[in-house]
Amino acid sequence: MLKIVNKGSLNEKSVIVILLFVFVILCSGSVEGKVVQSDDILDEEKVVALAIEKNPYIKEANFNLLSQIESEKVAFASRLPKLELNYDYIYVKDKPYIIMDYQIPPLFPGMPSLGKIRETIPTGKNQSIKYNITAYMPIFTGFYLEELQKAEKIGIDVKKFIREALILDIAHTTKVAYYNVLIEQKLLEVAEKSVEQLEAHLKDAENLYKAGLIPYNDLLKVKVQLSKMKERRAEEEGKLRSAMTYLATLIQEDPLTRLKLKDVSSDSIVLPKMKLEKLIKIALSNRPEVKAHSLITKQFESYIKIAKSEYYPKVNVFVSYQRSGENLLATKNSYTNEENTIYGFTVKMNIFDFKKREHTVNRLEYEKLSQKEREKQITDRIKNEVVVAYNNLVVAYRNFETAKEALIQAEEDFRITKLQYSVNMAKAIEVIDSEKALTEARTFYYTSLYRYYMALSELMRACGIRDKNILYSGASE
Question: Can you give the pLDDT at residue 265?
């Protein structure tokens, strides 16, 4: 049956369908992730630099450092003279006055008094204005202010070392994420290559089956293995997306961004020249945690002196210029002097506080001893981190050397097995096993390669350095 459609309605429907199609394409592109510009290829250094620049933990450490700098300035300012202005305005409903009683003396000696006279004498106006400008300065505080500034200045260096430790951690974490993305990219390539090899093998098997040279069971085994490898390829795609998302989060990029990374694969990796003993020395001299805890111990020495300052008197000197009057500027006063200048000093000392000062000093002494033990713990932990990182690097290096040799052998075995299968001298299961072994060898090769770089990054962090050339340029004694 022929159905006639109105041309106008057909054109409208066509436009709607095209618009929907374009919308779907745009949406699908946004879901898959936006691609970084073609010339924006990130290498290891760029990725680490972005993470350090944008990481919120490091930004927090920067703000903490700025806050500590201001605290030191506050401590310094506390030692300088202070100038203070006080202004008081008072209005009273009734004028202030005093009442004076006078006794009228007798006219002649021996005569009684003539009585009393009460007189009200005003002492001020309804409004009273007083202001003074006072300058005062601490002369002696029992070394409290001096030690406080010293402790705050040490705190600046402590905050700097805390920030450096964070930078080392973030750099290592970012490198590991970077290498994980490269691993997943290579493993996805391995899976795709395996699928291609199995698809080619399936075509060969189908031709041999049609020629009656292999049983149907062999053909089924190839199909089953191909299906498994396609599943593995899908899994690797998901792992790659997850690794990419984590790396993008570390450098504060859109999680859907598809980053372009520069590969760092190399067959010529070498172990550092330095021996383990030298690496431990470098770590103990470079790690910011060691420096920070050493300074914290010095801080406690200042805190103890601050607590002991309570045993000393506090002396301040001051000079004050005062004015009082009836108008807003206190330039007129009908009842007393308009201005005055006062000089003086104050002495304040705690005589008895039920041994509160003594207990405070004892508490800080114990905290200082505790901090020294914490220094030892940090030192032991860093030594252990260096030993573990170095051993991991050696193992990763040996694994890569083994994987490189195994890959060469697996490629040759697969080539020979395929030739044998093509002349009906090998079974399909043998080709599948050989291809599986080749896939595993490739996986082991790339995994061990990038794990070597991860172990190298771990050793750099353990030693407290960011330039890996230091590890390769050192003496080996």
Answer: 67
